[in-house]
Amino acid sequence: TKPAIFARETSCDCRAPHEKLTIAQARRGTPVDRPVRVYADGIFDLFHSGHARALMQAKNLFPNTYLIVGVCSDELTHKYKGFTVMTEIERYEALRHCRYVDEILRDAPWTLTPEFLEKHKIDFVAHDDIPYSSAGSEDVYKHIKEAGMFVPTQRTEGISTSDLITRIVRDYDVYARRNLQRGYTAKELNVSYINEKKYRLQNQVDRMKEKVRTVEEKSKHFVYRVEEKSHDLIQKWEEKSREFIGNFLELFGPDGTWKQVFQERSGRMLSYALSPRESPCNSPPRELSPLRSPSPPSPPARWHNARPSPPTSPKGASASISSMSEGDEDEK
């Protein structure tokens, strides 16, 4: 779980004497205290999955492998290959954290000499089999191959440091705009004043496009939800309408409840008309209509003012005359 160690001047610390191994012997396996020491070198700029897969193959070449990785310095790399994106310190640290690496050799030589191989007790050198022409040589690993110490690995197609740099150069404007948006200055990016304004304007345009795209997505989602709701409403309306029509037919249909009720009522009315009920014998007296109220009672008679009513018979007439005479006498 710890990072790989940096190589020391003492080199190999194994107790057993370091004897030269053949590939067949290494593949059969070696004692625990005598691992097969495999060396892989490179620049490892912009450390990526292609580098990691090559080191994984080198680590798994033999059952008991100790992998030493040599990393060339900036001076040698700039001299023989070109400018790097990462510094040598950054490249050292990137290699230290690869789980297949057991040891890091800093400031590795560009060409491997027999003295270098003997000093670090290297058994085999791992690299891809493509001839690597550099430093005036058609293949810097030619003498290693002739000595039987070369073990090939396979390159990972579609990924390399040159491919990554090509992507950056091709999409330079995009990365410059991104870093300007993240707070980098035009001076740090080596961008002119005009290009800076152009990039910032493009960033604003992109933000507006993103907002429009977001509004469009939201509107599509809203329309989709409205369509779902409308379908649900139409379905519910159809269900309710079918239920209403069924209830209506059940109530008012040819055999519905309303027809049965109407037939029952019409039958009762017809029976009443054919055989009406008799009036009760002890019916209550008939009350007078309020329009025909009885005449008010006559006020009491005052004898001194009252006029005698005409007699209805001779006896009544004589009685009334006698009463009048008695009254006259009283007044006198």
Give an overview in words.
- The structure is a single chain.
- The chain is an alpha/beta fold and 332 residues long.
- It has twelve helices and six strands.
- The chain has a six-stranded parallel beta sheet.
- Helix 8 (172-181) packs across helix 10.
- It starts with a strand and ends with a helix.
- Catalyzes the key rate-limiting step in the CDP-choline pathway for phosphatidylcholine biosynthesis.
Summarize, please.
With 332 residues, this protein is of the alpha/beta class.
Tell how many strands the DSSP assignment holds.
6
Biggest sheet, spatial arrangement of strands: 1-4-3-2-5-6
Query: Count the helices. How many?
Result: 12
Distance between the termini: 161 Å
Overall pLDDT level: 80
* Contiguous uncertain segments of 5+ residues: 288-294, 301-332
Overall 3D form: elongated
What would you call the structural class? alpha/beta
What brief labels describe this structure?
332 residues; alpha/beta; 6-stranded parallel beta sheet; single chain; disordered C terminus
Chart the SSEs and their pairings.
Blueprint: E1 5-6, H1 23-28, E2 36-42, H2 49-59, E3 65-71, H3 74-80, H4 88-96, E4 103-106, H5 114-119, E5 124-128, H6 142-146, E6 150-153, H7 161-170, H8 172-181, H9 186-189, H10 193-252, H11 257-274, H12 314-331
Parallel strand pairs: 1-4, 2-3, 2-5, 3-4, 5-6
Helix pairs in contact: 8-10
